[in-house]
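TL;DR need structure tokens for one chain.
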Amino acid sequence: MPRCERKKAEDAIYHVIVKSITEVPLFKEHDDKMQYLSQMRYYQKIYGFKVYAYCLMTNHGHFIIDSNGADISKIMHGLNFKYAITFNRIHKRNGHLFQDRFKSKIVSSDSYLITLSAYIHNNPLSIRGYENCPEKYKYSSLKVYLGIEKDDTGLLDEAFIMQIFNNDVKKARENYVKFVYICDGERIKKELEFEDEKTEYRSEKKIIVRNFEPEQISKFLAKETGINEMMLYVKNNKNAKIIRALATLLMRSLCNYRCSDICKVLGNITQSRVSSLCSIGVEIISTEEKYKNIINKFISLQPA
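>> reply
TL;DR here they are.
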């Protein structure tokens, strides 16, 4: 039977669910959960999407993701593929880990959004020891919402939902915790089933356009790095590696290019090399202050 086409929109917010195959837990231990969040952060640096809430359970995970103009399928395919390889290597296994494709449903309204966040944050209620205190569960964003812990992952933008409850942080937390505790889990679950896809949730936020050309990126990077554009096509050179890595990162993020497309732009290199260059690019913007905001700077300099 052919797969149904996934409903997507460039300014959509999604409820995303990932599940493992029946016989294998998706997260066997603490390190697995942290690995998944870390790898999600890696892809967040590439695609610039936002995470508004999450909860990782043993065999599945829930997320509220604002794609911010990126393709949700590219984000989740890359993330799940990378995690499955890591998981199989660490746990010395082969074969599939995830149950079919990830599930995604477009969030249709503010009321749907906050109800969904409560449902996600109430997931730990089914775990022994957390029946009355979901905020103590380590692998959920609820603890950040309530100010119990800081977001060490760097993933979360909890303010987007919390401002719906109140602009004052303290009042918002008080209102949100009441809302979470009064939500009926079974009733909410029925409302949030993956049936009858809704229209997309649209806000006034600015969406990142993803239709830039490689030539725009190469000219910008040449100016920013002081490295000649022609070095993009030079291999085994330290300066060339910097501009090639940043160019690969920006093309994946802003040109809507696949790895195979970038291979051709950079002179018929392999897809594994493109992946490696992208990782180097992420490392550069994560560790070098000069390039920390280079993606946003490129966007800001483009004509409206």
